[in-house]
Structure prediction request, 221 residues.
Amino acid sequence: MILCIADLLSPEALAEIRRALDAAAYVDGRETAGWHARLVKRNRQMDARMSAVLQSPVLDALRRNEVFRAAVLPRRFRPVLFSRYETGMAYGAHVDDAVMGGDDPVRSDVSFTLFLCPPESYAGGELVIETTAGEQAFKLDAGAAVVYPSTTLHRVDPVRSGVREAAVGWAQSLVRNAEQRELLFELDTTRRALFRQQGKTAEFDRLAKVYANLLRMWAEP
Ligand code: NI
Prediction:
């Protein structure tokens, strides 16, 4: 399941991050890629000191977002990376490392890209994800995010003009399996809609019980 979340960042949080982007120092993006992804990664990344400051506005926004929480069931996050693609830069097809962080490993179940620039300010730079139905390309508004399974091959197409800035990150989910996560998300969405329409009926209770017990069966806290 691939999910787009509009307005993940508040205008204030987006403005704060964009101010920091202007002042930040950048390093070669290859420093944080796995050995084969490194061969196709051509971008820059904000240096560790500044990007540490910007972790919380992004991670707090994700943790607060009801759709993200329901779809991802996040258990832990890797530190967010802030990437910058100048004209001519790209990130060729790759799969994200399955386990990240040497001393404190996190399994990447879900990847996300949070767009930080208005789409009209650069040409190219689409995030392209391979799915069984073909390729899907994403270029969202500043402050919007695309959330997708880390199991996919994906790439960032070359930026033909302008600069593309984005925050990228990974979550380990309570539920490792993407199909199980999707079933839980559908069930959760339905049970909430039923509650909004009819309140806490016997049918809602039954559905809430099925949701809770499937989550109990599948979760790895
Ligand atoms: Ni990637």
